[in-house]
Design brief:
- By secondary structure, the chain is an alpha/beta fold.
- The chain has one domain: Rossmann fold (3-Layer(aba) Sandwich), CATH 3.40.50.1820.
- 38% of the residues lie in helices and 16% in strands.
- The protein is built from ten helices and eight strands.
- The chain has an eight-stranded mixed β-sheet, sandwiched between helices.
- Helix 3 crosses helix 10 and helix 4 packs across helix 5.
- It is globular, with a radius of gyration of 18 Å.
Length: 304
């Protein structure tokens, strides 16, 4: 355990930032600048793509992808900011470690496009993969933060629309409760270098646009029926106000008979997996995520 690395990263993340609510434009610009400092591994190639009616970025190993295996990746950003480009440190690391290709979806953002636009786009992208001949047994949903939550809500919406569920779900520090009723929202506020209840509610209100958060597609950690879900890996750090989003979803998954791994790392921040090269735990967590994906995501083979 790299205690010095964790302490140094925490200190960096606590550097002074502008106080008070920021404009959407300022939030988006600040996030782009922060994520541009992170490491994107070598050994990938990218090109623009289209899934449904939304743009995406196709990320593949430079030497070619494992036949048939696909990650559908959803970036983080509170449904208000972020893009496939800001998520590239995570998407590319999964591609390099698994040998799979990944489509990173550029779903619509609030406040211009509030709930349920992101979910609609995610399901449309998944449907496009299926309509193109992809085997659901070889498709995994993965995402971070709000995108981690989208792995769950998109799976709920796809299942309820009669689509086959994907083979697996990997969620990094997912946001899964817009009611903000988890004890960690208060208990972890001083430990979390990123979020406070106030900051979560600032962007959350843009996505909600007046909707009641007591809805399974907004708060699956407390309200969703996860019956029939694929195996899930939830990775989260103890220094997160969103910690209980993962712990409570894992409990619901177990109660529904779903295979679930709750992977909790001590003293690390929100989406710590993005800090490869600066935090040993980031690389170790990505290795575990890649192993999970390769164990559960593969095309079905047919016998003559």
């Amino acid at each position: 355990m790299s205690r010095q690395q964790r302490a140094e990263l925490d200190a960096v993340l606590r550097r002074p930032r502008p106080e008070g609510p920021r404009t959407v434009e300022a939030i988006r610009a600040g996030f782009r600048a922060m994520m541009a400092q992170l490491i994107v591994p070598d050994g990938i190639r990218t090109r623009p793509a289209l899934l449904g009616d939304r743009p995406a970025v196709l990320v593949e190993p430079a030497g070619g992808a494992e036949p048939g295996a696909t990650i559908l990746y959803f970036h983080g950003g509170g449904f208000v900011f972020g893009s496939p480009e800001t998520a590239m440190p995570l998407t590319a690391n999964l591609v390099v470690r698994t040998g799979f290709r990944a489509f990173s979806l550029d779903y619509r953002l609030a406040p211009e496009h509030p709930f349920p636009a992101a979910i609609d786009d995610a399901v449309s992208a998944y449907r496009a993969l299926l309509d193109g001949g992809a085997d659901p047994a070889a498709i995994a949903f993965a995402g971070d933060s709000a995108g981690g939550g989208l792995t769950v809500t998109a799976c709920l919406a796809a299942r309820d629309a009669g689509l086959p569920v994907p083979a697996a779900i990997v969620a990094f520090s997912p946001g899964l409760d817009m009611t903000r009723t988890g004890e960690s929202v208060t208990a972890k506020e001083s430990a979390d270098p990123f979020f406070t209840r106030e900051s979560l509610e600032h962007t959350g209100s843009m996505y909600l646009a007046g909707r009641d958060p007591n809805h399974p597609l907004l708060s699956p950690a407390t309200l969703a029926d996860l019956t029939g879900f694929p195996p899930m890996l939830l990775q989260v750090g103890t220094n997160e106000v969103l910690l209980d989003d993962s712990t409570r979803l894992a409990a619901r998954a177990r109660a529904a008979g779903v295979d679930v791994i709750l992977d909790v790392t001590a003293d690390v921040p929100h989406v710590f997996q993005a800090y490869t090269g600066a935090l040993d735990e980031a690389d170790e967590a990505l290795d575990r995520a890649a192993l999970f994906l390769t164990q559960h995501t593969r095309p079905r083979t047919t016998t003559p």
